[in-house]
């Protein structure tokens, strides 16, 4: 029983991490119709900025408020990077999907290479605050505390994204702008500012995933964002490219499948099991789990 509890909570923690990454992808694609392959680069920037702040920034690092300062610095760095990418690279290419893919793929390769050139390819130990360094006993299972932190943060992000898309002026403007940009512009509304905001929010979610992913794995590497992005794309496809709720459900499913398959079979088979789930969803439910969930991405 304790093993099952451990696998369930760990799977939820991994699913929460996947959701933080995939939610930004789903938001940007659902609201802006941009397939952003550079999303993993924002995760890498967030992870390394958080690590750098915890080591070198006065007042950051350590436990409690210091760790929050380091995470806030990492999220701010990822958000700034996403904003600059949208302004300088994506904005001139709206409606030109082929060029968008080529440019973002280039960024996804260039950023990790730059990080590797500065800090090297070896994994860097990620600072772990004492508050989340221990374990919690639940039904006989000793569960790392950071799993609960990931789950809580992912739940808050999910609620925030749903509110943004359905209850805020900017979310409604972006949705209308995607459907008919000319009409919204004719009403005197600058859709470009809303698009920049959405891209920044997506970058912030990815950077937050980088910061908290360091807690989950214990280390950060230059290409960690690239590898996690693969699973984020799988989550988005399974959950539906325009559904935040579907994305959340798919994240939990992928995390659970990986954990149980890796434990009860051989190590590494969990990744294959996830691909099998992806194939099954594509063959039986075109459009992903979005058909089974209410509510589009914001």
From TrEMBL:
Cellular component GO terms, alphabetical: plasma membrane
Pfam families from the UniProt entry: BPD_transp_2
Entry keywords, A to Z: Amino-acid transport, Cell membrane, Membrane, Transmembrane, Transmembrane helix, Transport
Ranges in coiled-coil conformation: none
Entry's transmembrane regions: 6-27, 34-53, 65-89, 101-121, 148-165, 195-217, 229-254, 261-283
Topological relation to the membrane, as annotated: Multi-pass membrane protein
Localization per record: Cell membrane
Predominant cellular place of this UniProt entry's protein: membrane
CDD domains: TM_PBP1_LivH_like (cd06582)
UniProt xrefs under InterPro entries: ABC_transp_permease, BCAA_transport_permease
GO biological process entries: amino acid transport
GO molecular function per UniProt: transmembrane transporter activity
Family, as annotated: Belongs to the binding-protein-dependent transport system permease family. LivHM subfamily.
PANTHER family listed in its UniProt record: ABC TRANSPORTER ATP-BINDING PROTEIN, BRANCHED-CHAIN AMINO ACID TRANSPORT SYSTEM PERMEASE PROTEIN LIVH
Protein name as catalogued: Branched-chain amino acid ABC transporter permease
Species for this entry: Thermobifida fusca TM51
